[in-house]
Hints:
The complex is a heterodimer of chains A (182) and B (236).
Chain A: H1 3-14, H2 18-40, H3 43-59, H4 70-89, H5 110-128, H6 132-143, H7 148-155, H8 159-181
Helix pairs in contact in A: 1-2, 2-3, 2-4, 3-4, 5-8, 6-8, 7-8
Chain B: H1 6-17, H2 23-35, H3 40-50, H4 64-78, E1 101-105, H5 110-125, E2 142-147, E3 152-158, E4 163-169, E5 177-185, E6 188-195, E7 198-204, E8 212-219, E9 232-235
Antiparallel strand pairs in B: 1-7, 2-3, 3-4, 4-7, 5-6, 5-8, 8-9
Helix pairs in contact in B: 1-2, 1-3
Amino acid sequence: MEEEQEQYLVDGLRRNDRASLEGVYDAYRGAAHGLALRVLGAASEAEDVVQESFLALWRQAGRLDPARGIRSYLFTIVHHKAVDRLRQRGRKGETSLDPEMPIASGGEGPEEAATRADDQESVRAALQTLPEDQRQTVLLTYFGGLTINEVATRMQVPAGTVKSRLRLALGRMRRSLNESET
Amino acid sequence: MNDLTCQEIDESLAAYAVDALDRDESVAVEHHLAECRQHDAELGDFRSVTDRLPAMLDSVETSGRLRNSLLDAFDSAVGAPAPAEPMGATPQPPQPPRQPKRGTFAMPSFGYALAAALLVVAVGLGAWGISRGDDAPPGGVVVRTIEGSDHRVDFVYVPERQLALLSLELPQLSADRAYQVWQITDGGPVSMGVMAANTVTAMEIDLSDASAIAISIEPAGGSTSPTTTPILVSEI
């Protein structure tokens, strides 16, 4: 979505404009639902999280920086709410943590799909640059919703090692993503 | 866990960015981040990665029921003032300074200035008939005063109308410095604007996520985040 369009929608959200909320929802509903479903593994809960997240985005509209992008704020909210719910009700069980395996498809427009496809290639390449232990740490925490201590138990390493791996992984991915854009 | 060092924050920041900390540790990190600006850049770097991780996932179709439910909830909520998100419910990204709509009056008397400011806001918004005695804003009105030997700050906030009035009587600063007012949220300080030493300012602003206001001395023109320790802080 163009920055100008983002600004327009953010302005609308700040004015409690219903059409702007619909615009944001139509642009990002599929991606938000995909993220919530990946973390939670349960469709009904994922839809609850999506609804709560769009409402939270609207409530926080006064503090959004459109330059960062609605998508970024929304995904931060969706992820946090999904993880929070996951921890409240316990683990979802052993679902696949391979983000390359699609759950389903649909729910996004052509423009959003094209943007995501470009981004997917960059992010996938950045993940591939990581050593296996760092890659697994990113997948288990972000997509699996596991805590540092849970990952430490699973990988049989100290929690400090998991934190260190995560820090190194995100730093390396950032450099890789930056390089891919230059 | 409440007093983490900057080194401990550095070690935990990536885990915080992916929501992988236990709740207590996450809250402790948030408290530190609200007070310390040293980690903003690194957190921003981590977020620039986590923001893009969902691109790995396929989009998933949503039901028409979800759309209707969302819009129903929105319609219900806009009938009343938008409720604030519970503190700590959502990690907040670093915030840019926000310039609220405001009007400034250089008046030494807070009582007189307050009345004038209310009047101007009412006229400007066309929404607050202050001349009618039965139109007092419903809900709690926040009133705070911070007073010392050489300063006085009065703050009034009307949540129902999202109106704030701020009276500063502070020592004059050199030309290259200015007072900057901040609302303190879970995501850190958010600028409410740069203000002169002796002014009354009325602003239209949502402070529902703010736990306090603070005033710091910044370079003239203001800063994107506080560069000095606040000289005054008041919980709201």
